[in-house]
Amino acid sequence: QSALTQPASVSGSPGQSITISCTGTSSDVGGYNYVSWYQQHPGKAPKLMIYEVSNRPSGVSNRFSGSKSGNTASLTISGLQAEDEADYYCTSYTSSSTHVVFGGGTKLTVL
Amino acid sequence: QLQLQESGPGLVKPSETLSLTCTVSGGSISSSSYYWGWIRQPPGKGLEWIGSIYYSGNTYYNPSLKSRVTISVDTSKNQFSLRLTSVTAADTAVYYCATVNPRWAFDYWGQGTLVTVSS
Fold this sequence. Notes:
The structure holds two protein chains of two kinds. By secondary structure, chain A is mainly β. Chain A has strands at 9-12, 18-23, 35-40, 47-50, 64-69, 72-77, 86-93, 100-102, 106-110. Chains A and B meet through strand 7 and strand 8 of A and strand 5 and strand 10 of B.
């Protein structure tokens, strides 16, 4: 059981928008703005898509955006494209001795 | 642009020690900008943080693995390493090395290396 809760799967059609949630506690997501999101295609290493809740690294499409409300962070992908089909993971800093916690991952299917 | 590359045995026997090295290129491991971390992913499962090290030797470990894990750094070789003792089949995973920035985000990743624990 992962420390952060994500839906197992989400789906959407090309051009649509989808949102993936990541729910934690006040000790992690709710207490710090150190939430990150990663995209992982099959057989590949994860790729950083969002850091500090809503910041995009250089080179990441502005179709990807992040936000947070209370203990839940969200990743929104607008204008879905076939290449967005992948697994998505959230992470957060935590005040517990674990330091970093991961979500269980969400499989995005582009219909 | 930083590049990271994992290396080490792909097969380890139960109860033995898993040892992996991450070689950093395109930048210095002595950079104050990063911690250097290890993350693993069992086949078909999610990601698990193992631990991180600063070039000075300061370390953070996942408490669930802390008793079996050692992460070290060799600044002369621009490398950092992972040792995991007393391995079992549950330690079978793809092991990634990655940079950890001050905002606890993993910026750069190695390609990953599969380590199988089996006799």
